[in-house]
């Protein structure tokens, strides 16, 4: 089944499930990245949470594995309060952490070791978040991906962190889209909605795809010109940190990401703090969540070459 038809078919499910974006964990503290791109490749089997988030096995201080949510929208890795208590971690400081909703002061803990497959880091400073539920023990952010490549295989439920490599588009099979880095994340630059330029952020930590009001207004204006007027449909959402917010269901008639074309894509409009963080409050923008990303066989984010690869099923 093509991404276009699969996205349209799953759109109602995404709205009725009240999609849960992750806490963004964009910390004001310095981000400590891997020292170079010569680390060994790390291939890990993933599991899926009940909210369709991808969970990676991570060891902390020699214990685990613990379930860390794979979040390409977070620039730093975090632990949950329950893992902080389980490992008897203490905090002597706090830091400002940006979430999808706003800015919060969170305790900072020091991890003696954080290990992802064969890769490990010592003395890691990580925010502790009040993550709800028992499934998620922490957040694995893009601080592990300096100049490297993350491949998310949704069919095999696996992830691979490896060296940057050249990709080329293959008609009908693979689309490679240029991007730029901002706060560690990759933002697709070659994207438009019905021929009008927009920005699109890759965020595997968001269950549902979000747009801001600037993009919604573009859609509503187009609908009005065609004589289509329907009352807004409200969608209630809650972040993993328990932050509740309300959005509006919107159908995107025609979305292009590089050479990739999608139609009738359902998203949720909410002018969240995350758009302020990325400097996209005043321009049409989209946050591509796991609901849309998982419609592909594989999505690869290459931070060395600033590009995103989409593999079709």
Describe the structure.
The protein is built from 5 helices and 24 strands. It is mainly β. The strands form 2 sheets. It has a 15-stranded mixed β-sheet that branches. Strands 4-5-10-6-9-8 form a 6-stranded mixed beta barrel. Strand 23 and strand 24 form a beta hairpin. The longest helix is centred in the first third of the chain and has 14 residues, at 3-16. It is globular. 45% of the residues are buried.
In brief:
By secondary structure, the chain is mainly beta.
> Which runs of at least 5 residues are low in confidence (pLDDT < 50)?
1-23, 27-37
Kindly name the structural category.
mainly beta
- What amount of the residues lies in strands? over 45%
Number of strands: 24
Instruction: Using the CA coordinates, give the radius of gyration.
Output: 19 Å
Distance between the termini: 7 Å
Number of helices: 5
Q: What is the topological layout?
A:
Layout: H1 3-16, E1 26-27, E2 42-45, E3 47-48, E4 54-60, E5 63-70, E6 78-80, H2 81-86, E7 91-98, E8 103-116, E9 119-129, E10 138-140, E11 148-153, E12 158-163, E13 174-182, E14 185-188, E15 191-193, E16 196-197, E17 199-202, E18 210-211, H3 213-225, E19 233-238, E20 244-257, E21 260-269, H4 273-277, E22 285-288, H5 290-293, E23 298-302, E24 307-311
Parallel strand pairs: 5-10, 6-9, 17-22, 18-21
Antiparallel strand pairs: 1-7, 2-12, 3-4, 4-5, 4-8, 6-10, 7-8, 8-9, 11-12, 11-23, 13-14, 13-24, 14-17, 15-16, 15-20, 18-22, 19-20, 20-21, 23-24
